[in-house]
Structures are given as C-alpha cells and as structure tokens.
Amino acid sequence: MAVISEQIIKQAKQLRRELHTRPELGLNEHHTSQKISELLLSFGLDVHTGLAGTGIVATLRNGDGPSIGLRADIDALPIQELNDFEHVSQNPGLMHACGHDGHTATLLGAARHLSENRHFRGTVHFIFQPAEENAGGGQMMVNEGLFERFPMQEVYALHNWPGLPVGEVAVSQGAMMASQDNFYITLTGKGCHAAMPELGADPVVAGAQLILSLQSLISRRLSPLEQTVISLTQLQAGEAINVIPETLHMSGTLRCQSNETRITCWRLIEEYVKSVPLPFGVKGEVRWEFGYPVTKNHPAQAEIVREAAEHSPGVTKVHFNNPPSMAAEDFAYLLERCPGAYFWLGADGAEPSASLHNARFDFNDDLIPLGIGIWVTLVERQLKDAAA
C-alpha cells in the first residue's frame, strides 16, 4: 500500500490553493500551464508542451514495460466567485468552480511521488488537459496526436464528486457521464395584430405545442429504459405586447447515456421540429451544436480502478456500477480512442460540498492524499502486474 509523504501532500495542497487564486478559461491557461511545466521539470520528468495550445504531457519512464496515461483537467469557469477565504479567485468573473485546481494538484502530487518512488516498471504519461469546460480540449489533444506521440495501452481520469462522502469512490463498467448536444430551433410564421390572429400564423402557439411534444418524445418514442434528458432552456419572441411575432427562437440541450439513443434523438427532434408546427401554418428548422459523446468506461479498466481504490489508503467504500450522471465530460474523446476508465472521488466532508459550477464551490483538500494514493496504487499494481 502506497504511503504518500506529508511533504508531497503539503506541496499539493499549497499548489491547489495557488491555482485557485489564478483561474484561467479554456485555451488561455497560460499561467497554469507554465506552473505545471516548471513543477514537472523539477520532478525530473520529460515535459512536452503545446498540445491544444496550453496542454502538457509529462513522461516518466522506469524500464521496459507497458505505458498508461493519467489525465487531469486544468481550466476554470466564467463565474464570479462568492467565497471569502484567503485563496479566493483574484481574476474577476473567473473561478475554479469544478475542482480542476484540485485534479491538477493531485496528479502533480502523484507525479512527484512516482518519480521519487519508482516501484513500477513501464511508462506513465501525465496528461494535463486544457479546455474541458465546453471547448473540447480533450478532442483537440486527440486530434493533435496525443496517442500517436505518446502511445499508451490505457488511460484514466478522476473527478471530485459532491454528494459522495470523502473516502468513497464510484466507478462503472459503462456510461459514467452523458453525451451533450445543444439545439437551436427557429419557428417562422406570419406576424399580425394580436387582436386578429386569424390573419397570421402564430409561432408562439406552435412553439408551445412543440415544447410539450418534445417532452413526450422521451416517454412515448423512446424506451423507458433509455436515460435521456431534453431540456428547452431559452425562448425569444416578439417585441410588442399587441403583435403576434413573425418568428420564435428556442434552444435547449439533449443528454443521452448511449450513442445509439443520441442518434435516434437527433432524428426524432428534427422530425418533430418540422412536423409539429405545420398545422399552425408555421415552418420549423433546427440547427445542431454537437458536443461531447457519452463518457463510457471500458469494463476491464473500470475493474482495475475498482481494485486500485479498494487497496488505496483512506478509501472506505467503492461504489461499482452505480447510475451515471447526466452531466457531460470531454474525457469521452480519450475513451473513444484508448481503453480506460473515469471515476468519481467523494467530496463531502463534515458539511456537504457546494455543487459543481456553484459560485461558492471550493475543492475539498482532504481529497488530495486520497487521489494521489489511488493514482500511485493504480500505477504500481497495473504496471507491476503487466511486467510480471
């Protein structure tokens, strides 16, 4: 069982708070990237910069053997922080509201420990990925040759998880997070005086019917066993209270737990947008903004995470094959190209953590030694076993 030194844990916690004060948006993590690179070089790793602009891959080799990747996300969110502690964000309108500062510090702690205690045989690639929040930095790194330049047999990532107590881990053999697509619908009718609706074609009434129809899509056109969410979140129409407008714009998000259901929903939503408004004399069109695919673990690697967590210091419980989240994660792109697994690390201490993407969120530093321990245990077990 790996024993992480207090010096490494202290450095990682200090770094986490330093990163929290200097949050940077995706693809602009210049200070963050420089700090990470400096530390990795001081640990004696081979450091490669520039993937997806601010991305970093640091390589630690210890003899012949397999190669695995460990990934952390490094970007922040466009949220004005409402906390008042000493390490509050110093960049107005930006904050680490999802814990990427903690993920980064944890992986750096693991890199230092493994560089100083090489109880494994093979190669570890430490992947520090920019732009997880919406910009798709994971896809960019893959497209720019992540797996060609740094061949690896497996890849892993963790995320802190409010709602799960500190010391508990969750991992599944399949979907962990949903796909995420945005849609933008335009309904075009004929404007007229609100007192004489028969002279026009009302896109607002057609839109109301379409919203209800799209919600029934899940209960009547898909199997009740399919986990899917369709949410209409924005509506814009009209400029005057006594005018039926020419157009209505609505937008929303689609989340699915399988890529097959995702494709079916694309087709059905387009079908509904075109057909439902027709009896109202209104034309419907939809534009898609395709986002992250399903974050789907490979069964063997999920089992590897489970066993590593069960043998890691401080882990009190491992949840296996729990229901997935309907949130999305761009580690999905890495899992589409390489066997691997993504898991959650419980974040709730004596008091429940604020939710992710909340202006009062702060990463729980008690997770840092737990996360480092899991990374180290996973590497030592997996590379040792593979080399035997």
TrEMBL record:
- Domain of life assignment: Bacteria
Kindly give the Pfam families that the UniProt entry links to this protein. Answer: M20_dimer (PF07687), Peptidase_M20 (PF01546)
- Keyword Flavoprotein attached: no
The Peptidase M20 dimerisation domain sits at: 183-276
Hydrolase: is it a keyword of this entry? yes
**Keywords, in A-Z order:** Hydrolase
* Record's protein name: Amidohydrolase
Q: Which organism is it from?
A: Rahnella laticis
